[in-house]
Amino acid sequence: MTTNSQSQAVTGPDIITFGETMALLMPSNGKGLEYSSELHSLFGGAESNVAIGVSRLGGKVGWFGRLGKDPMGRLIYKKIRGEGVDVSRAELTAEAPTGLMMREMIMGKTSVYYYRKNSAASQMSAKHFDEDYIAGAKILHITGITPALSESCKEAAFEAVRLARKHGVKVSFDPNLRLKLWGIDEARPVLLELAKLADIFLPGLDELKLLYQTEDWDVIVGKLRELSAVSIVKGGENETYVVTKDSITAVPYFKAEQVVDTVGAGDGFCAGFLVGLSKEYDYAEAVRIGNLVGSLIVQTEGDWEGAPTWEQVDAILNDVKHIER
After folding, report:
1. Of 218, 267, 303, 319, which one is the catalytic site residue?
2. Catalytic: 267?
3. Any stretches that span the bilayer, and where are they (predicted)?
């Protein structure tokens, strides 16, 4: 991918991810978008949310994607870089604008509206990849949002996976099913094929019910065990499940003291989980870290703003008492 800064040495980040990051507008007063005269200007995108979360937890991480060479694109680029994420393979382009999403919460239900057709990120293709950058990582994290953006993005997602596998880089895949971007019949074969190619599959239980067209947990587990990946199933009633060929491990959630904004919880989970793996914890302990990070994210407005540091996570895991004064 065209760079905006000097190319770094081959020894790059341990965890890399790519995809679309958009400007985000939200009402500042709790009203619906239609009735609010003031909007918060933020940004978000599943992959950059994960990258920021990993960085705050002390991980060495990189994010790349395409942003418009416009005020919001420049803001996003600088903000992600300021969070300690390597953006040396990201691109600001004058060819297309930065994508936009607007979000509102009415009566406890969140609604998201996308304005991303023909955005800079939707024009991403495999030609923008730096193979050496991918080869130098330990984990490539991708989501099912990228292949939903355009045909070139779908091809790019599969090419990134191919390059990772070629160089022995583990592939982490969160399907992140977005039915406002494509229908389930179009999404299903693409997401299931990516799941087959992944080393780590990170679906939500509701997503699995749609992908496998069943409500039966035993049938779902049977399908997951046909994969070569270890499956981490989010969204259980009180726990996250680690599903392998011969075992299921349930890892309890951490209770959130308050729920302010549920968007970004899954990305926070992925960040915590991936950092746990990078610290060589086993899957269950890495999931425990992911569960904790996800519970902390939902207590703050925004997609990534509430992402904790490793010191904060470690203190909670080890029950270190907070000294206020």
Report:
1. 267
2. yes
3. none
